[in-house]
Specification:
By secondary structure, this protein is mainly alpha-helical. It has one domain. The protein has 7 helices and no strands. α4 crosses α7 and α5 packs antiparallel against α6. The protein is globular and about 40 Å long.
């Protein structure tokens, strides 16, 4: 609704490159289960209701799930925190198939509960999770046609 994503992304890249703000940018990663529903999941559902694909928004949810699952392995255990950490850790320890795990995370976090497009959104997220598992962020981005060029800073 009036947001031009290219300049906004460039502005974020410039802001995040400021080392004086490191403590603030670190806060962005915390509490994903509480922030994603209204910021990302709701937007993805709105796109789907409008007949549009939620491919980039569902990538955000998949990236959060992948990052949560990677803590204590590829990422430091305390890299970020979430109120559902204990339950998420137990869930990831069960080594569920990707689609089942995506649905279990949605259930646990309450993402899109009762929404008619919920299952379809879970399927988008699960597809991205497969890409993350098979080739990391590079494959997940490439599957959406996103290259490796960093965002340009606004002039």
């Amino acid at each position: 609704a009036g947001l031009d994503p290219i300049p906004y992304t460039a502005e974020l890249a410039q802001r995040f490159s400021n080392t004086a703000l490191a403590h603030r940018t670190a806060q962005i990663a915390n509490d994903g289960s509480q922030k994603l529903p209204q910021r990302i999941v709701a937007s993805a559902l709105a796109r789907m209701e409008a007949g549009l694909l939620p491919e980039h928004l569902s990538l955000v949810v998949a990236a959060w799930i992948a990052a949560c699952a990677a803590r204590g392995g590829a990422l430091p255990e305390a890299h970020f925190t979430d109120p559902l950490d204990a339950a998420l850790g137990e869930l990831f320890g069960r080594n569920l198939p990707t689609a089942t795990m995506a649905e279990a995370v949605f259930d646990l976090a309450g993402f899109a509960n009762g929404h008619a497009e919920r299952q379809r959104l879970i399927e988008f997220v699960a597809t991205h999770l497969v890409h993350f598992k098979q080739g990391g962020p590079k494959l997940a981005f490439a599957a959406l046609g996103i290259g490796n060029e960093p965002p340009r800073l606004a002039d």
